[in-house]
Each structure stands twice: as structure tokens, then as C-alpha cells.
Amino acid sequence: MEFGPFLLLALMEGLVGAAVLALTASGLSLVFGVMRVVNVAHGEFFMLGAVAAWFVSQWVPGPPAVAFAVALVVCPLIVAALAALADLAILKRLKHEPEATIVATIGLLYILQQAALTVYGPEARPVPAPFEMRLQLPWFGWSGYKLFVIGAAAAVLLGLWLMLTRTRAGLVMRATQIDRETATAFGIDVTRVHAGTFALGAALAAVAAVLIVPIQQAHYLMGGDPLLLSFIVVIIGGLGSLRGTLLAALLIGLSDGVISTFFQPTLAKIVATLLVALVLVFRPQGLFGARA
Amino acid sequence: MTRALTLPLSRRSVLAGGAALAATTSLPRFVQAQSAQPIRLGFQLHRTGIGAAYGRWYERTALAALKVVNEAGGISGRPVEILFEDDATDPRRGAEVVEKLATQAGVDLIFGPLFSHVVIGSAPRAAELKIPYLVCSEGYHVASGKLNRWVLQPGITDVRAQVTAMAPWVTQNLGRKVTMIFPDYAFGHDHRDFFSAAVEAQGGEVVARIAIPPTETSFTRYFPRIPRDTEVLYHVMVGPAVLSFVKELGEFYGTGPRPQIFGFIDSLEAVDIASPGLQFLEGSHFWEGQCRMLQPDASDAERFYRAAVGVDDAGAAVEDPRNVSCYGHMFSVWETLFAIKQGMEACNWRGPQDRQAFVEAVEAITDMPAGRERPQGAKVFNARLHQAFGHQFITKLDGGRLVKVHETRIEDSLYDSDVDYTAMPF
Predict the structure, then answer these.
(1) Number of separate domains in chain A
(2) B240: which chain A residues are within 8 Å (Cβ-Cβ)?
(3) N or C of chain A: less Cβ packing under 10 Å?
(4) Residue B244 in contact with residue A217, Cβ under 8 Å?
(5) pLDDT tier at A111, thresholds 50, 70, 90
(6) Which residue spans traverse the membrane (chain A) (predicted)?
(7) Which of A7, A8, A12, A13 should we substitute to test contact with B (largest number of B Cβ atoms within 10 Å)?
(8) CB neighbour list of residue B421: distance below 8 Å, 6 or more residues apart
(9) What structural domains does chain B harbor?
């Protein structure tokens, strides 16, 4: 294929990856920023969103678009409720201590993964896309749905930004992030903020999964890759910095698309991991991190 | 991390399955045997992990064959039991499963795995434990001579033989400039090496070789590497994302010009060929180990097998048309169980003390005629290679149906080799 179209395809593929990654990683980043919890089970919330979307697609009659719309609303809510429950039942009891919560979320990862295996089974199952549309370019065809994924992810991220900067809930979350004790002194119910943040983080992963599942299929082991990439993005962007997370997601997503199209996907992973190492050595707080 | 956790689950379900099996197999017709002790076979099953779709159908086929064997009096008049153990389609776990089945469960021998990395990872342990290990794996690793005398493959032709038999048809009917897309591990490498050699022997050329990790979930990024002058696109994929692979291939070519497509049915095992997005496959060709859709000239044996396993004429489960089978591969489980029966009866199997005699008895098999024991068709067994050689089928997707257009002869699949397992020590 000629260089121009080749690059175009690489960038388009990279943008899809970046969009989904930005959603997933912003959830992880938010949870760390506000709660100081490294959520190792984040990828499993992503997986649960996809699996839930498959169940919705089975239960909701009518055209795929209706089931998809229902899934886009219901699945993140289910996953968010589950996450809030996990926070109240497990993480709160550990007083959100960093070391303890890492171990606890590792356990949560296994519990969620095995529960999915038990209930949903080991198969990869397709979820129909809300619409079948193909972009036919002179050099290659491309799924029109992937364009929708980019747009929808951008819309959700914009909504998240507005929520954090323009609403009372966002204000309370930012207050808790900056100083937990002072926030408590000002009458903020930190327990509720934590549960809500954990739920919101999980819901963002679930939204990403619902968007991606018509492309990828739902599978109980699908949480591994998003988790790894989210960590890479969050470390490069700076733990807890949403702006850094978004920029790093764009950087990693696009470079992954370009490098893996022109060379090898394995090389793309190597470069991303190398980047993490370099960031940790030369700028441990990340590109936009506030504290070392 | 996954595998550590799948263990307790599978152990429990194996116990439950074993108990249910024991309850159903204790039929009164085994009284004439010298010993009424059941023969216990271990099955290394890909119940979870990337091979789960195969595992589901391999288990179903094994249970169907077991029922047929037991209803006909078992092996040497003794009832047969199968103990399934999940290996999570993982090589390290595979070796542990061999160990567990042999030492803890005390099975007589082990059979059943498909994925080549699991077989290669497990075979050394089988040799250390000196237990026969019969694989349903297709890969060339058995016939290559790199495994050991305890590993046998009597139920399915290896990849080298398959592609050697089919390459002439591909180059003569579809084109001479081939691009190969294959999974990046042992099984895919067998395809890459031997199909390339076979095409070049026919005067053709492999213009690009695109390796894809079997755990990959997104494929579009690989397709620009398909050269423009490709005449035939040869694809073979495995893993949970095979449907995404073919869908994205369809999106990539769209309505534009595309090369001829020749795919191994592996890319579509357990996938409904009428899934949305797969319309572009119409007119493309497939290798099938056995034709998924019932052909008009199907033998009585094949019809019997299809009914026994519970597969409808389109290749899906009779009770659920959405549950599409792995029909191109799963016959190997059925045929391997009957090869085990033949070997055990030939060596007057008494118990684990006869394991070596069993291997020698299977090595003594040469002709494997078609029949209910071999519904896929006749085979010959090459004792030196520990490998069976059979017919291969090329089908064309025509009006949504896979129609047989070519059947290779057994002779077409033979190749020269100086491997000799029978000269190796036990």
C-alpha cells in the first residue's frame, strides 16, 4: 500500500485505540487522584461492561441499535453499583491504605474474572454493532462504527471534564483530592465521595467496553490489555492528572496505531513500556503530575 | 495469573463430571471381562483460555464417542471412563494437568489436547511419567521428531501433510502469488514453513508472511502489509477473536478488488458463517478436516457420527443452531478414542504396567479403514512418525453453504522424513 493511505489507516486505527484508552485510563486516574487507590481490578470492570453488554444484547428485543443504546446506559450503571459496593465492603474497611488496597484489588480482579467465567462462560461472544456502515475509501474500506466510537468517547470525556469543573459533585471530588482532612472538616462526607469516585472510575471503563465490544467481542480475559495500557498511560501522564491522562492516551494510542501498522504490534508495546521506564527515571511524577 | 484461579473451578467440575460419568457408565453388560475394573482415560481439555471453543466441542465429542464405545461393550469388555481436566490452553498448566491426571487421578493414559504450544509444553512430562499421550493437535511437532516415543497422533493429519496435499490445488486454481496470515506460534509456523515450501515446489511464490499473536484482538492494522499483487490470501487464525479477524478483513477490502481467499476453517471454527459482516467470504475457499455442512455424498459412518455428537446438517448443535461446532477438527477426538480401544485390545491391556506395550501396539497399526471408528475417512498410520495421514477437503462458500470442491488423496499428503520414533528408547 502507498505511504499516504497507509499512514491514514494507521492514524485512524490509532485514534480508535486512543479514544477507548482515554476513557479507561481516565477512570483509573480519577480513582488514584481522589482516593489514592491503585485499582488493579480496573481492567475487570472494563470486562464486566463488555459482558453486561452481551447480556443486554440478548435480552433487549428489537434492532441492535436499541439494545446498544440500552447497554450504553445500563451497563455502566450496573458496573458502577458493583464498584461502589466493592468500595464500601472492602476498600473502606482497609481505610484506603495504598498497600492494602493494591492487594485487595488484586483479589477483586480474580473474583470478578472467575465470576464472569462461571456465569458467562469461557467463550468470546460477539455483540452486534448498533449500525452496519462501511466507509469505502479508494485504497481500503473502514468500519463506520469505529468513527462513532471516537465521537462517543470524545463526548463522554467532555462530559467528564464539565462534571469535574462545573458541578458541585466535581468540586467535592477535587476538594477531597487536594486535601482529604480539610474536606472532612468542611463537612464533606468523604466516604460517599470515595464510593462515588470508585463507581465513576469503573463506569468509565464500562462505557469504553460497551463502545469497543461490537469490534472486539466480549471475553472473560479481555481485561488484561486495557489494564496494562491504562497503567502505562496514567504513569506517563502523571497519576491523578486527568489532563495528563488524556494527552498520554492520545500519544500512546496514536503511536501504537502507527508503530503497529508500519512495524509490529509487539514493537509498539516495547516502545510504550520503554517510554514508561524513561518517564519514571527522568520525571517520576509524570508529564503533568503535581507531586513527586 | 488466570491459570492459578481456573484450577479450583475446574477441579470441582471435573469431580462432578466424573461422578456423573461413573453413575451413567456402570452398565451390567461388562460382566464377561476378566476384570470389571473400569479403564480410566485422562482428557487434557482446553475448557478455558484461548482454546475454549474447541474445548467445548472436544468434550462433547469425547462423551459421544465414549457412549458408543461403552454401549458396544467397552474396551476388552471393560467399561471406560474419561476424566476431564482443564489446562486453560496454557503450556505450563498443561504439564501440570498431565502430572495430575497421571499421579493423582491415576488414569491409564492421557489424550485430547489440540493447541500445539500446550502439546509441546506437556509432552516432556508425559515421557518422564512414562504415560502414553495421544494428541489431537494437527501440528507437525509430533511428526517432526522433536517430541518423544510416548506421544502419538493417530486421529488427525498433521499440518505439513495437509498443506502439502492442498498446495497444488491452490496454485493451479486460485493463483501463484500467495500472502500468508497465520498465528505467531508453533502451529502457525508449521503453516508458514510447509505451505511456503509446497507453494514454491509448485512454481508459486509466497510474497508476504504476516504473523499475528494468537491473543490479538484487533487486526485491521495488519492488513496494509498485504502486497497489492497478491493473488491468493491464505489465512489461518485461532483464538477467541477469530470472528473479529474475518470481519475486519471484510471491512478492509469492502467493495474494492480483493485477491482470492483461501482460509483454514480454523479461522471460522465455532463461528456462524452467516454472521453479519462475513458476506465477503462468499466465493472463497476453505480447508476443512471434515466438511462442517453435510455433503450429499456423506458416508453412513459420518451421518452416524454427526447424530451421535448431536450436530445438525449445518454443523451446529442440534439443540441450539447458534452453537456452531468445531467440525473440521473434533472428529480427531472420536477417532483417537477408537485408536486407543484398538491399541488396548491389541496389547491385552491390564493396567498401567502395559503402557509401553500399548505404544508398541499402536505403532503396529498401519491401515486405518473408514467406518464408524473413523467417520472422517480412511487413514494410514506411519509408526516411525507416530502420525496418521488422511484425506483433506477443500470447500467453497457458495450461497452461504460450504460445498466440497476437492478431496485430496492420502498419497498427496505424504512427505519424506528420516524421523523414527520406534528407534527411540522409552
Answers:
(1) 1
(2) 123-124, 217, 219, 221
(3) C
(4) yes
(5) very high
(6) 6-32, 44-60, 66-90, 102-122, 142-164, 195-215, 227-254, 266-282
(7) A13
(8) B145, B148, B149, B363, B383, B384, B385, B386
(9) 2-158+328-390 (3.40.50.2300), 160-295+392-413 (3.40.50.2300)
